[in-house]
Each structure stands twice: as C-alpha cells, then as structure tokens.
Specification:
This protein is an alpha+beta fold. It has helices at about 10-20, 65-75, 90-100; strands at about 25-30, 35-40, 50-55, 85-90, 105-110, 120-125. It is built from 3 helices and 6 strands; from the N terminus they run αβββαβαββ. The relative contact order is 0.15. It binds coenzyme A. It comes from Kribbella sancticallisti.
C-alpha cells in the first residue's frame, strides 16, 4: 500500500489501463515482483507539457533508488519536453525526489486536498 486513503481504486486503475494509448506511459519497476510504478501523460504535440500523474515505490524498498530509476527512465521518454506534476505540500519524500531532478515549484492550490493540505505544482523544463 503506497498511498493509504489516496490510493487509486481498482476502478481507477482499470480506467487508466483502458485509456492506454500512445500518450500514456506506464513504467513498472520489477525485481521479480512489481516494486514500483510511474504513470506519465505524454501528449503527441511536443509543445504540450507532459504530466507526471503518479509515482510510487513499495514501502519495503523505498530509499534504495527505485523511485529515482523510474523517474530517470520516464524523463528519458520525454527528453527536451516540459514536465508538470502536482504533489501534496507535506509529501517530503516525493518533494525531495522531484527537487533532486530539477523540478521547481511554480504555484500552489490552497487547501486542495481533503484535510486542507495544499497542492504544490512543480515544473521541469527541458527534461533529460
Ligand atoms: C516518493 C517515492 C516514490 C520515492 O521513491 P524511492 O524509491 O524511495 O526514492 P529513491 O530511493 O530513488 O530516492 C531518491 C532521492 O529522493 C529523495 N528522497 C526519497 N525519499 C526521501 C525521504 N523519505 N526523505 C528525504 N528525501 C527523500 C532523496 O534525495 C533520495 O536520494 P538519496 O537516497 O540519495 O538521499 C516513495 O517515497 C513513495 O512511493 N512514496 C509514496 C507515494 C508518493 O507519495 N508518490 C508521490 C506523489 S504522486
């Protein structure tokens, strides 16, 4: 369980896979069993920003480099593009991961999440 109450339901995952198309990239980190995933929305038009929709790593293998490897592989698929994402303001692990890859905060949505937590919008220009 990676997201607790914010986890995607089976219905949400089914919808995600039904939408699979050229613009949706799902990467799975596999160490004999799935230990992490990354979901990107990559519009065909190069000038449109890529959306990083989700990244998660199984709790038992966190802080061993899996998230970084997924992000590296994902960003390679959209080299040169602008990438946007949204993260809860209190999510220190994800925030640190994203900042380490050069993402910068560009705006906030006040009280966006249930419970009143802010959403932080981050951007990476020129992914590599
Ligand atoms: C965010 C997440 C994907 C990171 O995955 P991970 O495999 O643990 O990340 P890595 O081991 O590759 O860490 C890469 C870097 O990110 C930063 N980082 C990761 N976890 C951190 C933590 N708990 N505290 C501080 N920095 C952290 C560090 O800079 C780290 O480098 P270092 O270990 O050399 O210091 C993982 O914590 C997770 O699945 N969280 C729950 C789901 C989530 O919140 N997803 C993001 C919102 S969509």
């Amino acid at each position: 369980m990676c997201f607790g109450l914010m986890a995607w339901s089976t219905v949400a995952w089914t919808t995600e896979f039904e939408r699979l198309s050229d613009d949706r990239v799902i990467l799975v980190a596999d160490e004999g069993t799935a230990v992490g995933y990354l979901v990107l929305l990559v519009p065909a038009a190069a000038e449109d920003p890529v959306d990083l929709l989700r990244i998660a790593v199984a709790p038992e293998v966190r802080r061993t480099g899996v998230g970084g490897q997924l992000l590296t592989a994902g960003l390679r698929r959209c080299a040169g593009r602008t990438v946007l994402l949204e993260v809860a303001a209190g999510n220190e692990s994800a925030g640190a991961l994203y900042r380490g890859f050069g993402f910068e905060e560009i705006s906030r949505r006040k009280g966006y999440y249930a419970g009143g937590e802010d959403a932080v919008i981050m951007r990476l220009e020129n992914a590599a």
